[in-house]
Amino acid sequence: MQGHDQGASAELDEARATADAMLGVDLLELVDESIFLRDLSGRIRYWNKASEELYGWSSAEALDQPAHDLLRCQHAEALTDLNQKVLDDGRWSGELSRRSADGRELLIETRWSLRRDAGGAPQAIVESGRDITARKATDLVLAESEYRYRNLFQAMAASFWELDFTAVGAMVRSLYKSGVSDLRAHFRQHPELVREMMLATRVIDVNEQTVHLFGRGTKAELLTTVEPFWPDASSTVFAESIIAAVTKAPSYVKETRLRTIDGKEFDVLFTASFPPENMQKGILMVGVIDLSARNQAYAALEQSESRYRNLFEVMAVSFWQLDSNGTNRLFAELREQGVSDLPAYIDQHPEFVRRAMDATLAIDVNQRTLELYGARERGEMLGSVSRFWIPGHDEAFRHSLEAAWRREPGYLAETKTRTLDGRELDVLFFVTAPPEMRERGMVLVGNIDISELVASRNALQRMQSDLAHAARISMLGELTASIAHEVNQPLAAIATYGEAGLRWLGRPQPDLDEVRDLTQRMVGDARRAAEIIARIRGMARQQSPEPQPLSLNALVKEAAAFLRHELQSQGATLRLDLETGLPRLRGDRTLLQQVLVNLLVNALQAMAQAECATRSIVLSTRRLDEQLLLRVEDSGPGIAAEHVERLFDSFFTTKRNGMGMGLPICRSIVENCGGSIEAEPRPAGQGACFVIRLPLPAP
Ligand code: ADP
Fold it and tell me: Where are the chain's structural domains?
């Protein structure tokens, strides 16, 4: 071993001596690299000057020391393995972590080479080493930052392009040289030149997003030129970006359209940045942000706006967009004055309704509104809405104001409106104004023309009242005998009293007291006859319904009086069971009488038809919560189970000369008062019972 070491030293000494002789210096002492020699046992045999500087150990300190221990060497592989590699291959290189004399951590890039003696036997290892501690640190930072930027480059939602711009730079320079001074004008005159420049701009790299946005899945096919991605219509943007680059603008940003490799165009935000260090290298960084999603959202918005606009426009309903700021101001004034109850305020200041109308402005109306109001163009309809409201018919407007005051989101009512040519239309008037819209003074109003509906409803009402009238006449017809009898009675009495009176007057001593008494009876009977005729005329008269407050008990008594003779002649008894102190209901006197008389006549007819031995009817009135109840019970045959369902059908009758219109007319009269009528289910043979419920008017 010793011999080897000495041999190696001798060889080195020899080399140094030769170098010394040739150059006059120890060569190894001149080099910047640390060079040392260690024998196969690892002890240091030579230690140059650079090694002293690098590790901080002097040659004297280092010599004979085991290199590994002195330098506190650390490496991934075991030392014996490394040594074996050198013995096997003659050389090894790698990075080793070591410590200097003063304990600093050093990263050394080392190269080991094996020296052999003349016989080829391994003799020593020469190590040259370079301190790469600092370089490694910067490398690390660089790698890290590159990694970070690369990630950024890849991960950004934007598409990035790294472009080689050198050829374009050369083209521009030659343009300048040939005397072109206004690039913009030149590009405009020579659009083909711009295309050429696109072809000359090479794509060096793109990120994933670019592949996604412009490509078909592989990056390689995008690494050509930028030309395929620029539609003609966007050429000026490319030209402008070149002008920006050569005029040393820091960047250029423009919305434009680009196209995918398959030719599909889309909206983008094109950004190019020109940092001087890139420009020198002829590199251009371009970012492309896909705006189509944003633009699609805008388009969708526009579409939905236009959809609503369309709806507003084409609906067969008259729509109005109103500016209600005027009303908002009036409300604010009232609230400032301390008004809290608008209905009460309007009761005292009815002119407020017109003021609010004047202040409410139509700012848009749809086509249907023009048609409905006979306007030739929209302008005729705009401005204050007052002229469309008929004086005396502004209840609906008033109530809509009150709803607005209460911040209700909508209001609906039937009303009348006046057209531009003075026609009056029945309309269903509705207001839509969610509070946040109303606060901004926006109110949407609709008018549905219900003139025809109202006309047909009126016609229906007229028909119903005609029918009721016809039914009353026919009922009177059925009662002719009893009516004649009833009228006859007082007339006959009058005749009798008259004759008796004449006799008393014909006596030689006329008894004037007797005559006075008879005459008074005559007057009484004449009045009774007049009353009967008035009642019959009332029943026979055709009139439109006149709802008024009525006493149900009084109605019952009148009906009983009306049929008194009929009841008598049929041998029937009528018992009245009336609750006292009933509140008044609201309805038409004649029509409700008709219902009562009809039910009584039906009861009498049923009992007569069944030839009942005892014929009795009970009429009772009761109050049940907010309703009045009227029952008509008879001791007749009752209603067969199979008929119950059909009783109120028009033309359903079991009578030989019946019309089957009595009960349906009764039902329509009762329902028009907001009430109901039905036959109470009863066991067979226990008579019929009809129950009428009538609502009490709200207090
Ligand atoms: P009409 O009297 O012309 O038959 P209504 O509509 O008044 O028409 O009556 C329809 C039918 O209802 C009668 O034919 C009869 O069968 C039945 N009806 C009505 N009232 C009574 C009653 N009190 N008792 C038994 N059946 C009745």
Answer: 2-131, 152-297, 315-449, 450-544, 549-699
Distance 647 CA to ligand 1 centre (A): 7
CA torsion through residues 308, 314, 316, 320, sign: positive
Whole-angstrom Cα distance, residue 418 to residue 441? 24
Residue nearest to atom 20 of ligand 1 (CA): 602
pLDDT tens by residue, 601-643 = 999 999 999 999 999 999 999 999 899 999 999 999 999 888 9
Ligand 1 pocket check for 662: Cβ under 6 Å:
yes
Q: Does domain 315-449 have CATH number 3.50.30.50?
A: no
Query: What is the mean pLDDT of the segment spanning 11-34?
Result: 63
pLDDT in tens, 301-317: 566 666 566 666 666 67
Half-sphere exposure of 296 (CA within 13 A, CB side): 5
Ligand 1 site, residue 446, Cβ cutoff 6 A: no
Q: Whose CA is nearest to atom 11 of ligand 1?
A: 653
Whether the CB of 654 sits within 6 Å of ligand 1: yes
The vertex-309 CA angle with 305 and 313, nearest 5°, equals: 170
Q: Select from 3.10.180.10, 3.30.565.10, 3.30.1360.30, 3.40.50.1980 the CATH code of 549-699.
A: 3.30.565.10
Task: List phi, psi (to 5°) of 189.
Answer: -75, -25
User: What is residue 509's DSSP assignment?
Assistant: S
- Are 2-131 and 152-297 equal in CATH topology? yes
Nearest atom of ligand 1 to the alpha carbon of 636: 24
Ligand 1 atom with least separation from CA of 652 = 10
- What global pTM score does this model have? 0.46
